Amino acid sequence: MTELLNGKQIALDIKKEICEEIEKIKHKKKRLPHLGIILSGNNVESIIYVNRKIKECNNIGISCSLVELPKHSSEKTILQEIHKMNNHPLIDGFIIQLPIEPHINVDNLILSINPEKDVDGFHPANFGKMALNMNTFFPATAYGIIKLLQKYKIKISGKHTVVIGRSRIVGLPISILMSRKHFLGNSTVTLTHTYTNNLYVYTKQADIIIVAVGIPGFLTGNMIKKGAILIDVGINKINKEMKTMLKGDIDFDSVFGKASYITPVPGGIGPMTIMMLIKNTIKAAYKRLSSN
Ligand code: NAD
Predict the structure, then answer these.
(1) Is 97 a catalytic residue?
(2) How far apart are CA 106 and CA 104, in angstroms?
(3) Which residue out of 92, 117, 118, 120 is catalytically annotated?
(4) What is the tens place of the pLDDT at every residue in 150-206?
């Protein structure tokens, strides 16, 4: 039997905890945490993601500022906005919505973010801290995966995890988190990617498989062992019968019944990601308050 890992419900439970925390802050008449977002260009999906983040901030009651820059904005213009957010006294943490247009060097943007405000956890200072098992901001999707497994009391320690995809947003950070020396880690991790030969040899042996490739239905039932735990990060838009629908990177029908757990798409990792970003923003706010 395959059980669904209901990220939507767990995200709602976490949201409730966050709302209680915000109430306490309000009660103490302290300033509310404040998230900044820089959105450059008019990528339709980015606009949808940003709107969802703003909506959740509003629902929860944390402040949110959006800076929208037009398509073809220069790197210099975006860097100026980053500089403003770095120095803005009320903004606790901020993100640059990715992907960004190809004429922009993403590394230059990430390197210019103040690591103390880097609530996406992409700055090398924070990424390095994560790799060294120090306290820092974890990239939200990877953090969401770990939290979801924890909430379902799924043991990670000692398990063999295969991660498919090595992006800096998902694959790489989750491979680090799963392998670090921590009770929510201690897994033996195989990080696979486009240059991996005979991928199924690894996936067939895996206790946990995390798929983040951006190819609908990529992982199929014949690539997994019975009882595998499957985490589907993919969000792919497909057109079927004149309708647009979302499909994950796992071929749900062929793994269902063989896997022990699977995250659905939608309603799995997506809702967890936003909650973890908000958690990181609150953490940044507490950190700033305690250092002032
Ligand atoms: P990406 O394009 O940056 O990286 C894809 C990775 O997959 C690469 O490292 C590549 O090496 C690997 N890959 C591609 N083809 C492969 C193959 N045939 N075999 C093995 N590896 C292969 O993508 P990303 O930003 O990591 O996103 C992946 C998916 O996750 C997308 O569908 C994206 O929309 C989704 N996503 C979801 C969330 C969420 O909150 N649920 C967050 C971020 C990304």
Answers:
(1) yes
(2) 6
(3) 120
(4) 999 999 999 999 999 999 999 999 999 999 999 999 999 999 999 999 999 999 999
The structure tokens listed for 207 are 């206790």
Q: 88-103 pLDDT, tens per residue?
A: 999 999 999 999 999 9
The one-letter code for the residue type at 114 is N
Q: What is the pTM of this model?
A: 0.96
- pLDDT attached to residue 206: 98
Return the residue matching tokens 């767990």. Answer: 10
Name which of 86, 52, 27, 51 is nearest 271 in CA terms: 52
Identify which of 148, 167, 199, 201 to mutate to test ligand 1's pocket (most ligand atoms within 8 A of the CB): 167
Dihedral angle sign, alpha carbons of residues 208, 213, 217, 221: negative
User: Cβ(262)–Cβ(1) under 8 Å?
Assistant: no
212 phi and psi, to 5 degrees? -140, 75
Nearest CA to ligand 1 atom 4: 167
Q: Quote the ligand 1 centre to 23 CA distance (angstroms).
A: 37
Q: Which of 194, 183, 82, 172 is nearest to 124 (CA)?
A: 172
Q: Which helix (H) or strand (E) holds 202?
A: helix 199-203
Q: Measured between alpha carbons, how far is 57 from 35 in angstroms, rounded to an integer?
A: 8
Ligand 1 mean position, distance from CA 275 (Å): 20
How many whole angstroms from its chain centre is CA 38? Answer: 17
- For CA atoms 18, 135, 284, 65, the dihedral sign is negative
Domains and CATH numbers, the chain: 29-115 (3.40.50.10860), 140-269 (3.40.50.720)
